[in-house]
Automatic annotation (TrEMBL):
This is Thioredoxin family protein. It holds the Pfam family Thioredoxin_9. Gene3D superfamilies: Glutaredoxin (3.40.30.10). It comes from the Bacteria.
Amino acid sequence: MKEIIQNSLDKSMSYPDYISLVKDLVENNSTTGNEKTESLVEYTALNNRRMKRWGKTLKIDQEAKAQLEKFNKNVTWLVLTESWCGDAAHVMPVMEKLADLNSKINFKVVLRDENEALMDMFLTHGGKAIPKLIMIDNKSGEVLNAYGPRPSEATQLVNDYKAKHGQLSPEFKEDLQRWYNKDKGQTAVKDLVAMLNA
């Protein structure tokens, strides 16, 4: 396990590098991942706009900042993602803002389809759901925790809908986007701060 994690860390990128990669993909009408469909290219362009917006508008309250300052362990947040992933576009800017507030948190990004062995160790109900954040102790290399693919409230909404309807409809996916816009990243903030202090 440690070897697989180290291999992924060795080819990881910083969040600014990831943002730059997504911007280049948009300019070239492309996307990350093994599939290069027109709809995934469109999602990449949409997510580029979303990440920019959240990067500018996301607010972290004083209580969360105080909790973050207390965290005193050197860790890496290694996140599996792809540029077309709608949940990632909403959640990753939150991760980045929080990591920026504590120098002991190193935030790194890898692409899911290029890191299958790592993804296979962190499946959600047997699926390769992203984004998936893996919190690694820099000293021991141990995995301390994992988070994702969605904030806790959004996860509950998805699970309830799936239990009732079997699968997610396009209408539900639109409702989920509205939930993200209304929530303004605050559930993810609470979840991630709680994970640090678990």
